[in-house]
Amino acid sequence: MTAAALLLAALAVWSWTGPDPAAARLRRLRRPAPDGSRRSRWPPVRRSLPARRAAAWREASLELCQGLAAELAAGRTANEALARVVPAVAFPDPAAGRALAAAARDGGDVPAALLAVAPDRGGEGLRRLAACWRAGVTVGGGLVVLVDRVAASLREAEAHRQEVAAQLAGPRATARMLAALPVLGLLMAAGLGMRPLDFLFGGPVGAACLVLGVALDCCGLWWTHRLAARAEHG
Hints:
The chain is mainly α. The protein contains ten helices and no strands.
C-alpha cells in the first residue's frame, strides 16, 4: 500500500511539474523529419465537426481565390476563369460547386451565387469574393488584383487562426490534467488505506461532497473551454 501511494504521489508531482504537453509537441514538430523535409509548423488540433467543416470551407475558398487569380492573370475573362477553376476545388458541399459553375457558364449573377452557397461559418472568403466580383465586373476595377488581395487575407487569417490554436493547446491540456487530479487523489487515498469511496457513497454528506466536486470540476472544464473558444474566435 505504501509503495503504491508513493508511486501515485510521484506521478502527481511529475504531472504538475513535468513538461507541458503542447510545448513538447511543438518541439517535436520543429525537428526535421527523418527524410530531411520540414515538418508542418503547426501541431494538429482536434476540432469539433462544425469547426472541421468551417475549416474545409475556408480551405476551399482559398483554393478558389488562388486558382481564379491565376486564370485571370493568364488573360481569361472572369466567367471563363471561374468556370475553369470551380471543378478543381473540393467544396464540402458539391452542390455549391455546381451552382457556381452554372452561374459562371450561363452568365448568371455570380456574386449572388457566391453569397447563396457561402455558409454562416467558414464562408467569409466567398462573401469577400462576391464583393470583389461586384467591384471588379460591375464597377470596372481590376478583378485580378482584388482576388489576389482576398487570397492573401485568407492566408493571413488562417495562419493567425492556427497560431492561436497552437497557443491555446497548452491551457487546454493543463485544464484536462487538473480535472483528472481528483481521481488521482482518490487513488492515493485508497492506497493509504483511507477508503474514500466508503465516505463518498456511504452517506448524505459524502454524496453531497461528491456531487459538489463533480459539479465544480465540470464547471472548470466548461469555463476553460469557453475562454479558449472566445480567444480562438476573437
